[in-house]
Amino acid sequence: MALARERLGILELATTLGNVAEACRRGGIDRTSFYAWRRRFREQGLIGLQDRSPIPRNHPQKTPRQTARRVAALALQHPAYGCNRLQYLLHSEGLRLSAVTVQKLLRERGLGCRRQRWLTLEALATKRSLRLTAEQSAFVEAINPSFRERHSETQAPGEVLCANILPVSRLRNEGKIFLCFVVDIYCAYAFAALKVGWHEQALTELMQNFVVPFYGVRELVVREVIASAALPCGDYAPTFATAEIKYHATRLPPGHLHGFAERFGRIVSGEFFCGRRAAVDRLDMDCMQTELRLWLEKYNAKRCLDGYRNYGTPPAEMMDRWLAVRVPRPTEQPTMSGDLSNSFQNRFRGC
């Protein structure tokens, strides 16, 4: 306000002297500024004498808010469309915007890229604020296959697991390498092992050596395993039945995987195997197993999984949260964890 009072003093001086030119000469300003200050003082008072921003409050070329909201609505309605296709749709509605302006408006509203639209649609669907169309569901599920399984949620870690075996690489002297993995549907916690060649008992060994003991230590029970159609149900169902685990193959067509299995397969292929394909001939099986184990530890402990169902939480942290708030089991009811592990061990002693 000091500057405003200084200018007010010049206006008062001109009134006292009765001579604008003399007041301007003493104040060191030109008469154009003097008359502009006097006009602003008459209209707004002392506040009108403060400095103003050179940027106008209302730009004549600014996009109306209603148009901006329509751009955002179209981007969510057709989430796979880029700014050029959205521009064409807007032109068909009589809204003349350039593709650059469309992209700018989308960035301002957090919808400028596919990832932002995916997370926004998932959040709206989770809050039941939006019922997804077929186009929107296909877009979300293509980015996050786990979203396909939103209608079959589990209540605790270990209740339902999904499993699969995928060919991932080839060693020069040993042959094709297969990755056998199991993913917890509750929190996306993963277990995996590498095998040379197609190993019929790979899944059983993984369950016996890693999965069941892991949940047994935490007093959790594995109740169901959903496998891909590539894993024959007849080879595994009897073995799992002895451990009171329900085993069945997914009902999806051949080539389609369970959502959590597909997402983990993408992650491990892109983050672990993609960077090692050039050096795979220089590695042996033991080295690859060790590196996979270290990568799995990092994935479970630190890999933040966006979207359904972790929403940015690492798998291990999501499991720990459940363990921290679960209701303790009555002491008179023994857990089945030890029985499960023993069943697997007895099964293999008889082989």
Present the secondary structure layout:
Layout: H1 2-17, H2 20-27, H3 31-44, H4 65-77, H5 83-92, H6 99-108, H7 114-126, H8 134-143, E1 160-171, E2 175-184, E3 190-196, H9 202-217, E4 224-227, H10 233-242, E5 246-249, H11 259-273, H12 285-302, H13 315-325, H14 337-349
Parallel strand pairs: 1-4, 4-5
Antiparallel strand pairs: 1-2, 2-3
Helix pairs in contact: 1-2, 1-3, 5-6, 7-8, 9-14
Describe what you observe in this structure.
The chain is an alpha/beta fold and about 350 residues long. It folds into 3 domains: about 1-50; about 65-145; about 160-325 and about 335-350, Nucleotidyltransferase, domain 5 (2-Layer Sandwich), CATH 3.30.420. The chain has 14 helices and 5 strands. Strands 3-2-1-4-5 form a 5-stranded mixed sheet. A hairpin with a 5-residue loop joins β2 (about 175-185) and β3 (about 190-195). α5 (about 85-90) packs across α6 (about 100-110). The radius of gyration is 33 Å and the shape is elongated. Residues about 330-340 and about 345-350 have low confidence and may be disordered.
